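(Protein data)
===
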Amino acid sequence: MTSPQDKYADVMRSSQEAVVEAFESWTKNAQNAMTSVPGMGSAPVPPQEVIDQVFDFAGKLLEVQRDFAKSLASTAASAAQSARDNTESMSQAVRAHAEGTQQAVRDAADGARRTAE
């Protein structure tokens, strides 16, 4: 059976692959656009600049994923607390109903005993 961490790692790998594919597509489109403008396609972009752009983008993506994970965790915690509260409330209602039923049975038994005497 796959652990939640393994599933999350698989999703992250898929996300990273999608980002790489999107970046490659964007790069190809940008290169095509630059070569169609006179004088723009002749100056190569320094590799350090490309690396900085890629890591800046990855950092922003990671920040978005962090915010999403925090939001998801907060929602899950809130839902769990709500479920606990509802369970406790239902338990108290069942307990009160059971106690009332027990008292009614005792009262009926006492009444039947008095009638029989």
